[in-house]
């Protein structure tokens, strides 16, 4: 939901660039390569020289080729040429939103459309960082901290998108900056500095509105730090370790972006906006002795998170975690043995920085076989004495996982392929709550609508929803 300065830690190093010729044969649905990001940057920069224009890349990704072109290429592969490889770019050029298509075979921009309607491109990490930084030099903000007796060095801020409420006049590309207080905890989200509204015009990168409405106590730090090292007894009973061992190695193969496991075959790619994309999933039918198509393309298309709080500093919180912050952009490196089991294999991906250069995101996916100890199918036959026939098929599956941390919130995104032929999608919702600071210390004091539940002293858990929508282009046994 909200983004903090902590995103700095998720900015990954730029990797050395691998020459295209050394790569495996490219699939038309493969994510853009680092070299392709660089070519996009060069082509757009050349057409809009940065010396005379104000140019930022808000999004660079694959311009998805036509489905029929992909399917016909697959059918006639390798005798036909693959569909044209193109990039789709959303750039701010001289304060206008351009949607560009770059064709790699022509090394040129083949479409350049200026977006005039409502809606703005997703934020870049850089502009969030720049916007958050502005408050620290804004005298009214410093005075507001002073009034509350807060130390500047313990304050961290995040950029919040402002939603759209039917206004007919464009408000410009703005974010509101919300700040939090550390001072004894790393759980900044439990310590909001309420009732201060700082609005930043991202184009001018200036604060254009400031309001300090009232003083609300900052919830206390005690008991909020979630780090294991900071926990105090009593602890629950300790468990003995469990590990998954596959002495003969995994049963899946990864060939570029193509993953094969059991009777499944699919293509996996990554996008800054939507995260993992599973394409061309098909399953081998042992009786028909052929692959049967199941899904052409599937991904999380949006995560909409509206808050039901009408107060001045909260009403606008209607976040589009994919479209505004980037579900893929906010993906974090997976922690081996904790985020994924011991038998997992990891894959990296690339996104574009604001200047268009590729940024490597290591360990963005993990792929592993799951044996959860469940039964896929079983039967015990007792009706044919003296025989006792017992047949059990253990449930094995293949999981593709990504974790996206959008500010305070962590989404655990799984695509699970099962031997019975089903694909199971799950999103685990975890992380930290976005709470509202309050004057109340006990629920009996509350005599008004507070749009939430008092969770602790001065801490309201704000009512909100997470709507997760999927794009699922299912092609069960074909398109017809
Ligand atoms: Cu939530």
What keyword list fits this structure?
disordered N terminus, mainly beta, oxidoreductase, five-stranded antiparallel sheet, signal, Beta-galactosidase, Chain A, domain 5, 2 domains, 5 helices, Amine oxidase, Nuclear Transport Factor 2, Chain: A, single chain, primary methylamine oxidase activity, binds copper (II) ion, quinone binding, 480 residues
Question: What does this protein look like?
Answer:
- The protein is mainly beta and 480 residues long.
- The protein has 2 domains: 352 residues, Beta-galactosidase, Chain A, domain 5 (Distorted Sandwich), CATH 2.70.98.20; 81 residues, Roll (Nuclear Transport Factor 2, Chain: A).
- The chain has 5 helices and 24 strands.
- The strands form 5 sheets. Strands 10, 11, 12, 13, 14, 15 and 24 form a 7-stranded antiparallel beta sheet that branches. A 5-stranded antiparallel beta sheet has the order 1-6-7-8-9, with helices on one face. A 5-stranded antiparallel beta sheet has the order 16-17-18-19-20.
- The longest helix is centred in the first third of the chain and has 14 residues.
- The structure holds copper (II) ion.
Bound molecules: copper (II) ion
Q: Which CATH-level-2 architecture of the largest domain?
A: Distorted Sandwich
Number of separate structural domains: 2
Termini separation (Å)? Answer: 39 Å
| Biggest sheet layout | 7 strands, antiparallel
CATH topology of the largest domain: Beta-galactosidase, Chain A, domain 5
Per DSSP, the total helix count is: 5
What are the secondary-structure elements, in order, as H or E?
A: EHEHEEEHHEEEEEEEEEEHEEEEEEEEE
Q: CATH H level of the largest domain: which superfamily?
A: Copper amine oxidase, catalytic domain
| Low-pLDDT sequence parts | 1-23
Active site: 321, 409
Family: Belongs to the copper/topaquinone oxidase family.
GO molecular function, one term: quinone binding
Domain Copper amine oxidase N2-terminal: 27-113
């Amino acid at each position: 939901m909200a983004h903090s300065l902590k995103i700095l830690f998720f900015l990954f190093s730029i990797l050395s660039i691998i020459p295209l010729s050394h790569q495996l044969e490219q699939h038309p649905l493969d994510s853009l390569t680092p070299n392709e990001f660089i070519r996009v940057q060069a082509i757009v920069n050349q057409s809009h020289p940065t010396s005379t224009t104000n140019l930022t890349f808000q999004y660079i990704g694959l311009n998805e080729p036509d489905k029929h072109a992909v399917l016909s290429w697959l059918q006639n592969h390798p005798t036909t040429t693959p569909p044209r490889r193109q990039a789709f770019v959303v750039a701010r050029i001289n304060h206008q939103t351009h949607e560009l298509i770059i064709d790699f075979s022509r090394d040129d921009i083949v479409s350049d459309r200026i977006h005039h309607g409502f809606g703005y491109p997703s934020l870049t990490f850089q502009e969030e960082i720049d916007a958050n930084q502005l408050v620290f030099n804004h005298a009214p903000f410093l005075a507001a901290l002073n009034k509350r007796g807060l130390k500047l060095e313990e304050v961290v801020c995040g950029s919040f998108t402002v939603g759209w409420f039917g206004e007919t006049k464009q408000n410009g590309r703005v974010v509101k900056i919300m700040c939090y207080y550390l001072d004894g905890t790393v759980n900044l989200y439990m310590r909001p500095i309420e009732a201060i509204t700082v609005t930043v015009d991202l184009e001018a990168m200036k604060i254009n509105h400031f309001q300090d409405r009232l003083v609300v106590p900052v919830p206390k730090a005690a008991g909020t730090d979630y780090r294991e090292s900071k926990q105090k007894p009593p602890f629950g009973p300790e468990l003995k370790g469990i590990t998954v061992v596959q002495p003969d190695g995994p049963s899946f193969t990864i060939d570029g972006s193509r993953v094969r496991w059991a009777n499944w075959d699919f293509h996996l790619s990554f996008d800054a906006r939507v995260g993992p994309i599973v394409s061309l999933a098909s399953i081998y039918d042992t009786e028909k002795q052929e692959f049967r198509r199941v899904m052409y393309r599937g991904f999380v298309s949006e995560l909409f998170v509206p808050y039901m709080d009408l107060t001045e500093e909260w009403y606008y919180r209607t976040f589009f975690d994919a479209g505004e912050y980037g579900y893929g952009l906010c993906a974090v490196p997976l922690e081996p043995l904790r985020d994924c089991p011991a038998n997992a294999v990891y894959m990296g991906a690339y996104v574009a920085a604001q200047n268009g250069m590729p940024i490597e995101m290591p360990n963005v996916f993990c792929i592993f076989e799951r044996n959860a100890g469940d039964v896929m199918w079983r039967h015990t036959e007792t009706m044919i004495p003296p025989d006792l026939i017992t047949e059990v098929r253990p449930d094995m599956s293949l999981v593709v996982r990504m974790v996206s941390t959008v500010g305070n919130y962590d989404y655990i995104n799984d695509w699970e392929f099962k031997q019975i032929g089903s694909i199971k999608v799950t999103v685990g919702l975890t992380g930290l709550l976005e709470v509202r600071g309050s004057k109340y210390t006990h629920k009996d004091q509350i005599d008004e609508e507070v749009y939430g539940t008092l969770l602790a002293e001065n801490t309201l858990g704000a009512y909100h929803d997470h709507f997760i929508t999927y794009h699922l282009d299912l092609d069960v046994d074909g398109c017809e």
